[in-house]
Design a protein that fits this description.
heterodimer; A: mainly alpha; MetI-like fold; elongated; B: alpha/beta; Rossmann fold; CBS domain Like; 2 domains; four-stranded antiparallel sheet; 13 strands; about 35% helix
């Protein structure tokens, strides 16, 4: 459950865990600014290629594009997923609970590549189809965790909240959401982290992001390009994931300071 | 005052509560007793509208409860449940202050009330105010639960097996404190329990339920003296009934004046029960006790003959309810 346990045994514990986002971010920056000057290193991967440094766009601009696509998709997914899960756990919406749970599962069984293939004729090339694919793909963890988190709130606690004279909105806002927050946040973390890597396939339909060097590398048989794209994406995912972990810890300690 | 008139609750075709009528006078302590599934909790939860009743009338202070806004109604009724239902992400102080805050009391008033209640329930403010529920023992958590229910000074207190999950010693202690609180605050209490001894100790009015119906109701002594049904009798403990009745009778009301003979060696406070007196006689192998007041001054004596005579139903004094 707690991924920090392994690190603790390496001697990094307590406050030291706070440095992980910084470490991953520093490595990410090193990649973004270092690859253009790392001709020698990259050359060792592809000695015969004309070019080993990806130059069609700067990694920094691709990184920003990548973040933009993932962020837009995340905002849509979080707002939509959390609201849908809240709605179907209320008195009036309970009938729709099985439907919403199934639609969310269906979204994830659909391969994002297939979503792209279907979305491009309707939405054209570019950024929009990949956002749609990411939203569908990232919906399940958020809906499932929000549903689970809300449903797992102790029945006695909810019943007491109502009996004390809290309005339904107060019960949701002051009791259910805070208690479900760690579980919901874990769902958001999974969704966003998966989507950072999934977003790369957007490059196949003309969305400009960190998938570009990978696709170009595959098309041209250039391993150096692939490494530049893949390593940057991996470090971005690790940075964001470790930020979420910090956030989860802070939430936990705010919920139960002991 | 709470009045239930021909109240029925059906879940589908099953009547969980079947045509019950019950009147609880202001300031009285009413216990609903019965085995699990007899409808006692359902009855309780209909009073604060956690469950809607299907038929009949529930009248609170002269008005049917449907006439009240449910949220406002619940804010003036205290509610205590077995597993406390404390909010685990809130401190003890914040949990207790919940209803006053819902009623928009000022922060200073809320804090003053919280501290007053914590003192009243034996929870030192410095030690407990900032603690979280998971750091409390079962007994402490239930004290917080009771404090939370009392915070907005409700006239009515609903308690659903509040001490059912506690160990016997803690349970007894909290029962004592509850009757001490009740003697002081005179809330109208509806108390659900399956523990007949608990009901006998606390209640002014006892309501025995079975399969959704009221089998018998009356004062504890009246029920002990004349259970009108084998079920009630078995709940009351069969052969133990005599002792239970003695436990409800105080020595003070049945001692004789000091006799001309030497006072007996064994001494017992006048506030104790006949049952405790009997127990002391068995322990000390005597049939005579000296009764003393709170300053250990002899005020009378209690004899085995007297106890046996007093325990006869036709001479026992029925407590008014």
């Amino acid at each position: 459950m707690n991924p920090s346990v392994g690190r603790r045994s390496l001697g990094l514990h307590g406050a030291n865990r706070a440095i992980w986002p910084a470490v991953w971010f520093a490595l990410l920056m090193l990649c973004v600014w270092g690859f253009p000057h790392a001709d020698g290193v990259l050359r060792s991967l592809e000695p015969d290629a004309n070019q080993v440094v990806y130059q069609r766009a700067s990694l920094a601009s691709l990184l920003l594009q990548h973040l933009f696509v993932v962020s837009v998709a995340a905002v849509v997914t979080i707002v939509g997923g959390v609201l849908a899960a809240i709605a179907v756990t209320r008195e009036g919406g309970r009938d729709f609970l099985p439907m919403v749970a199934q639609v969310a599962s269906l979204g994830q069984t659909f391969p994002p590549v297939a979503v792209l293939a279907l979305a491009v004729p309707a939405l054209g090339f570019g950024t929009l189809p990949i956002i749609v694919a990411l939203v569908l793909y990232g919906m399940l963890p958020i809906v499932r965790n929000t549903l689970g988190g809300l449903q797992d709130v102790d029945k006695d606690i909810k019943s007491a909240a109502i009996a004390m004279g809290m309005t339904p909105w107060q019960v949701l806002r002051q009791v259910e959401l805070p208690l479900a927050a760690p579980v919901i946040l874990a769902g958001i973390r999974t969704s966003v982290t998966i989507n950072i890597s999934t977003a790369a396939i957007g490059a196949t339909v003309g969305a400009r992001n960190l998938g570009d060097p990978i696709i170009a590398g595959i098309v041209n048989g250039n391993m150096a390009y692939i490494v530049q794209g893949a390593l940057t994406i991996a470090l971005l995912a690790l940075t964001v994931d470790s930020l979420f972990e910090r956030f989860q810890e802070r939430l936990r300690s705010r919920l139960y300071t002991s | 005052m709470i009045e239930l008139a021909h109240v029925t609750k059906r879940f589908g075709d099953v009547a969980a509560v079947d045509d019950i009528s019950l009147r609880i006078a202001k300031g009285k302590f009413c216990a609903l007793v019965g085995t699990s599934g007899c409808g006692k909790s359902t009855t309780l939860r209909m009073i604060n509208r956690l469950i809607a009743h299907s038929d009949g009338d529930i009248i609170l202070d002269g008005q049917p409860i449907d006439a009240y806004d449910p949220v406002k109604l619940r804010r003036r009724i205290g509610y205590v449940i077995q597993h406390t239902g404390l909010f685990p992400h809130w401190t003890v102080a914040r949990n207790i202050g919940l209803v006053p805050r819902l009623l928009k009391w000022s922060a200073a008033d809320v804090q003053a009330k919280v501290e007053e209640l914590m003192k009243l329930l034996g929870l030192p403010v410095d030690e407990f105010a900032a603690k979280y529920p998971h750091q409390l023992s079962g007994g402490q958590a239930q004290r917080v639960g009771v404090a939370r229910a009392l915070a907005a000074d409700p006239d009515i207190l609903l308690m659903d097996e509040p001490f059912g999950a506690l160990d016997p010693i803690t349970r007894e202690k909290l029962q004592d404190e509850l009757s001490r609180l009740q003697a002081r605050m005179h809330k109208t209490v509806v108390f659900v329990t399956h523990d007949m001894d608990e009901a006998l100790r606390l209640a002014d009015h006892l309501v025995v339920m079975r399969e959704g119906r009221i089998v018998q109701q009356g004062s504890p002594l009246a029920l002990l003296q004349q259970p009108n049904d084998p079920f009630v009798e078995s709940l009351l403990g069969g052969l133990e009934r005599g002792l239970k009745q003695a436990a409800l009778t105080r020595i003070k009301d049945h001692m004789s004046p000091m006799g001309p003979t030497l006072p007996a060696q064994s001494r017992i406070p006048a506030a104790f029960s006949l049952r405790q007196g009997l127990s002391m006689m068995l322990r000390d192998h005597t049939d005579r006790l000296t009764v003393v007041d709170q300053h250990d001054v002899p005020v009378g004596e209690l004899t085995l003959r007297k106890i046996v005579k007093e325990a006869q139903p036709e001479q026992g004094k029925v407590r008014e309810s």
